[in-house]
Design a protein that fits this description.
Domain Response regulatory: 1-107
Number of strands: 3
CATH superfamily of the largest domain: Response regulator
Radius of gyration: 19 Å
Distance between the termini: 34 Å
Strand content: 5-15%
Shape: elongated
Protein name: Response regulator transcription factor
Order of helices and strands: HHEHEHEHHHHHHH
Oligomer: single chain
Domain HTH luxR-type: 134-199
InterPro entries: CheY-like_superfamily, NreC/VraR/RcsB-like_REC, Sig_transdc_resp-reg_C-effctor, Sig_transdc_resp-reg_receiver, Tscrpt_reg_LuxR_C, WalR-like
Helix content: 55-70%
CATH topology of the largest domain: Rossmann fold
CATH architecture of the largest domain: 3-Layer(aba) Sandwich
GO molecular function: DNA binding
Largest sheet: 3 strands, parallel
CATH class of the largest domain: Alpha Beta
Structural class: mainly alpha
Length: 201
């Protein structure tokens, strides 16, 4: 994606590319460092997908505009990208002119979307139905890990979680480490937010 986007951006002098990253983790780190006005975010990336990366970016830099640029146009990805805070959603077949218009529109407060995506987004809005989660999401955490995360979401500390579930604090800590690895997050707040967004509890 990076090479294709770089080529499209190069057509327009008013758009300056400050960097690109090979995966979501590096992308989030680069955004923290560079503080760009706007990010073109792919969904399919190693280590952290674009939806989770968007959620993280919006948590520490809500002013940064994020346009999803992807081949994924199914209801599930559209719904979760918008819910994560994406400001626009373009399919990768968008030509350079459409990309430029989308960038200018989003910087003026708009929400650019490819026509097919816009139709699906409106349908989701009208029906109010959240797309069904994939089984991979439902099975992401074990029942014990889900219990622990629920307790943490209530504001409980490790010792309180341990007492509530009749396990040792060290066991709670180990489960939390596994939760972080499975969800690819680095803090309790991120884990809780992501688990809620995925409908894990």
């Amino acid at each position: 994606m990076a090479a294709a986007m770089t080529e499209k951006i190069s057509f327009f002098d008013e758009l300056e590319l400050v960097g690109h990253a090979p995966d979501g983790v590096e992308g989030v780190a680069m955004i923290k460092q560079e503080n760009p006005d706007l990010v073109l975010m792919d969904i399919q990336m190693p280590h952290m997908d674009g939806i989770d990366a968007t959620l993280q970016v919006k948590s520490f830099a809500p002013h940064v505009k994020v346009i999803i640029t992807t081949v994924m146009d199914d209801n599930e990805h559209i719904f979760h990208a918008i819910k994560a805070g994406a400001d626009g959603y373009l399919l990768k077949d968008a030509d350079p002119g459409m990309l430029r218009d989308a960038v200018l529109e989003v910087m003026e407060g708009g929400a650019p979307m490819s026509p097919n995506v816009a139709r699906k987004a409106l349908t989701l809005l009208r029906t109010g139905a959240e797309p069904e989660r994939h089984s991979s999401d439902r099975d992401l955490l074990s029942s014990r890990e889900t219990e622990i995360l629920k307790e943490l979401s209530k504001g409980s500390v490790y010792t309180e979680v341990a007492e509530s579930l009749f396990i040792a604090p060290s066991t709670v800590r180990k489960h939390v480490e596994n939760i972080y690895k499975k969800l690819q997050v680095h803090s309790k707040i991120e884990a809780i937010d992501l688990a809620r967004r995925k409908g894990l509890f």
